[in-house]
C-alpha cells in the first residue's frame, strides 16, 4: 500500500517545533490538548514573567478589550503616559517609545543613537559596536548588529554600520571605540541566546566610563534580562552603570506583544516628529497589560522574593555538577535567568527534560536555559528540581551504558 504522507503545513518552515500543542496554562503549568501537564521553565523564552493566565493580567485585558483596541498614535493614548512614567521612575530613563517586539525596540535604539549624533553636529558617527555571541533580533538591522553567520546566511550583505568585537576583549574595545565614526556601544548585560554569559559589573562600570570619555552612547539590550528577570527591575541596576538608551520587551508584556525603547532626555530629544513611528506600538490593549505587569513587579517585596527564589533554585541546581559531571558542567546566570552548561548535546538535555515533564530552552555555547515565571514558589522549585534531576539522571545512565559497552 502507498505510504501516507502528512499534508504540507501552510506555515513557513522556519521553526523546528516540538510535537506539543498546548490548550491552556495556569501559573507555572501548561496543559496539552490531550491532558498532559508540563512545568513551564521556558516561559515563552523569558516572556511569561507572571506565568500563565495571571488573574490581574487577564482582568486588565478583558476590561480594556471591552472599551478600545486601537486608535493609532495619531491620537493620545492615556495608558502610554502612565506606563512610560512608571518605567522612567523605575529606571534611568526620561522618555519611552513603545513598540510591539524586542527587535523593534532595538531598531528604535539604533536610530536614536545615530540621530543623536546627527543633530549634535557629528553625522559621521553611525557605527555601532557590538560583541560576538550577541543576539539582538531578526530584522536585517538586528541580525547585522548580532553578526552571527547562521542568522545572516542567505540574506545578502550585512548592513553597514555595525562592528563586532570579541566578547570580553577590553583592548579591542579601547581601540575600536576611539574611531571617529563610532556612535554607540550595544551590549547585553547578560548574553541570553549566546549562552547566559554575564558581563561582570566592573566591566559595565568601565564601559560606562569609556563611553563618557569618548562621547559615545551606551545602549543596553535588556529584552531578555529586564522586568525583574535577574532579580532587579533591569539587570544594569546590579552594577549601577546606567545606559543612555535601553531596549526592553519580553517580560514587559507578560505574554502580550509589547516592547519599549527607553532613553535619556538628551537622546530622545533628537527623535523629533516624523523621525520614527509605529502603527500598533503602544496600543491600548498592550498598555493595559503592561501597566498590569508593573502593578505586580513593582509591588514592595516582589523582586526580593525573585532573588530569594533564584538563590534556592541555583543552589539546588549546583549539586548536579557534582553528582552528574558527565551531563552538567556548570550553572550560570543571575536571578531566574539560569543556564546549564551541558556536557551532552544541549538538545538532548532539553528533550530529556521535556520527557520528564519540564520545558526549557536551548542557547548557544551548548547551554540550556531555565526561565521559569518570576512567581514560581519554593515548592514549585522543588518539583522542577525533581523533573530536572530525572532528565539529567536518564542521560547520565545512558552515558554510563555507552562507556561500558
Model description:
- The strands form 4 sheets. The chain has a 7-stranded mixed β-sheet with strand order 4-12-11-10-7-5-6, sandwiched between helices.
- It is globular, with a radius of gyration of 22 Å.
- Helix 2 runs antiparallel to helix 10, helix 3 runs parallel beside helix 10 (284-297) and helix 11 packs parallel to helix 13.
- A hairpin with a 3-residue loop joins strand 16 and strand 17.
- It is α/β, with parallel strands linked by helices.
- The longest helix is centred in the C-terminal third of the chain and has 27 residues, at 378-404.
- Helix content is 38%, strand content 18%.
Name the beta content range.
15-25%
Mean pLDDT figure? 95
The total count of helices amounts to 13
Number of strands: 17
Q: Categorize the overall geometry.
A: globular
At a glance:
The protein is of the alpha/beta class and 405 residues long. It is 38% helix and 18% strand.
Amino acid at each position: 500500500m502507498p505510504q501516507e504522507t502528512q499534508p504540507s503545513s501552510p506555515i513557513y518552515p522556519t521553526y523546528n517545533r516540538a510535537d506539543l500543542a498546548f490548550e491552556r496554562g495556569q501559573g507555572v503549568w501548561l496543559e496539552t490538548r490531550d491532558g498532559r501537564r508540563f512545568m513551564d521553565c521556558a516561559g515563552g523564552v523569558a516572556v511569561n514573567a507572571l506565568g500563565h493566565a495571571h488573574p490581574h493580567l487577564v482582568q486588565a485585558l478583558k476590561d480594556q478589550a471591552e472599551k478600545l483596541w486601537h486608535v493609532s498614535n495619531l491620537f493620545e493614548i492615556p495608558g502610554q503616559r502612565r506606563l512610560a512614567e512608571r518605567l522612567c521612575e523605575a529606571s534611568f530613563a526620561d522618555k519611552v517609545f513603545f513598540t510591539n517586539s524586542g527587535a523593534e525596540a532595538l531598531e528604535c535604539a539604533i536610530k536614536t543613537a545615530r540621530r543623536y549624533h546627527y543633530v549634535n553636529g557629528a553625522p559621521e558617527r553611525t557605527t555601532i559596536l557590538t560583541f560576538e555571541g550577541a543576539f539582538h533580533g531578526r530584522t536585517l538591522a538586528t541580525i547585522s548588529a548580532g553578526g552571527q553567520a547562521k542568522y545572516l546566511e542567505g540574506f545578502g550583505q550585512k548592513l553597514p554600520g555595525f562592528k563586532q568585537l570579541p566578547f570580553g576583549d577590553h583592548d579591542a574595545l579601547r581601540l575600536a571605540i576611539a574611531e571617529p565614526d563610532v556612535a554607540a556601544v550595544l551590549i547585553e548585560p547578560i548574553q541570553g541566546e549566546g549562552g547566559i554569559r554575564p558581563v561582570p559589573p566592573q566591566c559595565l562600570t568601565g564601559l560606562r566610563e569609556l563611553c563618557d570619555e569618548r562621547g559615545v552612547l551606551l545602549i543596553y539590550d535588556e529584552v531578555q534580562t529586564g522586568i525583574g528577570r535577574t532579580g532587579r527591575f533591569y539587570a544594569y541596576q546590579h552594577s549601577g552603570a546606567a545606559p543612555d538608551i535601553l531596549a526592553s520587551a519580553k517580560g514587559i508584556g507578560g505574554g502580550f506583544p509589547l516592547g519599549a525603547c527607553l532613553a535619556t532626555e538628551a537622546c530622545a530629544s533628537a527623535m523629533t516628529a516624523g523621525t520614527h513611528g509605529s502603527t500598533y506600538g503602544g496600543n491600548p490593549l498592550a498598555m493595559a497589560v503592561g501597566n498590569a505587569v508593573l502593578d505586580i513587579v513593582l509591588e514592595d517585596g516582589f523582586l526580593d522574593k525573585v532573588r530569594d527564589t533564584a538563590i534556592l533554585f541555583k543552589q539546588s541546581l549546583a549539586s548536579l555538577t557534582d553528582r552528574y559531571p558527565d551531563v552538567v558542567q556548570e550553572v550560570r546566570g543571575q536571578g531566574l535567568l539560569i543556564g546549564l552548561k551541558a556536557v551532552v548535546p544541549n538538545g538532548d538535555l532539553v528533550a530529556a527534560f521535556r520527557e520528564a515533564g519540564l520545558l526549557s530552552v536551548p542557547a548557544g555555547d551548548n547551554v540550556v536555559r531555565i526561565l521559569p515565571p518570576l512567581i514560581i514558589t519554593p515548592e514549585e522549585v522543588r518539583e522542577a528540581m525533581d523533573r530536572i534531576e530525572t532528565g539529567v539522571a536518564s542521560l547520565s545512565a545512558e552515558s554510563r551504558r555507552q562507556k561500558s559497552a
